[in-house]
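To the structural biology subgroup,

Please find below the input and predicted structure for Putative ABC transport system ATP-binding protein, which we are adding to the shared reference set this quarter. The sequence is reproduced verbatim from the submission form. If anyone notices a discrepancy with their own records, reply to this email rather than editing the shared folder directly, so we keep one authoritative version.
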Amino acid sequence: MVILKTEALKKYYGKEPNVVKALDGVDLEVQEGEFVAVVGTSGSGKSTLLHMLGGLDKPTDGKVIVGGKDISGMTDEQLTIFRRRNVGFVFQSYNLVPILNVYENIVLPIELDGNTVDQDYVENIIETLGLSEKKNHLPNNLSGGQQQRVAIARALATKPSILLADEPTGNLDTKSSQDVLGVLKMTSTKFHQTIVMITHNEQIAQLADRIIRIEDGKIVTMEGWI
Ligand code: ADP
Ligand code: ADP
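Predicted structure (tokenized):
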């Protein structure tokens, strides 16, 4: 089943004669449970694509369809609700709350939304991500790789339809990067979690199910179906 789809997606910044065509007609389909890596040089449009997929910004033209719903025409208010219900974000920086322990950080977005924590699911995530021993620790006592695993657990805990990761291994050494990728891969398999990840690291990208390459706002090749 297709969970995420773009049709002739365009995002232009600025005005003539200085228009930057950050995305210039992107057609993309991601299956439910698929783990996709988006690669490309700096300025090729990766971040812009992720912002469109996650409803952080609006397209100039074209469609973004998530779970059968076209989000491209939504108002800011509708997009805020859409993001809360459907999208998990993971960034290069972990953005953990330093005075809250690992468990508290993971359930914080659920509690802020006034929802009930699904304890079994959260425990399952914590165990799967290898954080059981660290539940009561403060973020500062963890390594970078461990902190990123907490950030991933926090994103997963809200049961998002799509998980979007922007350079999740950008601050990590090779060993921790592979560790974090292992965790992402496991969640895509075990929880059938759809993941779209930006990376400029080709070796890291190889660990995804599929690689999409962007150049000058266009998809240039699709390779690596496993
Ligand atoms: P990448 O993530 O691959 O580095 P981006 O999506 O950040 O690429 O940027 C694609 C192009 O769009 C670049 O030329 C960048 O400078 C431009 N761009 C991105 N965001 C903005 C913005 N808010 N305003 C103007 N230009 C932007
Ligand atoms: P990344 O390192 O993930 O590619 P960037 O450094 O390209 O991110 O962009 C960081 C933020 O700045 C994004 O929100 C992007 O939209 C914005 N941005 C990027 N390029 C420009 C630009 N030329 N003018 C204004 N904003 C920009």
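Summary notes: The chain has one domain: 34-59+75-223. The beta strands are 2-13, 20-31, 35-39, 61-66, 69-70, 87-90, 162-166, 194-198, 210-215, 218-223.

Regards,
Lab coordination
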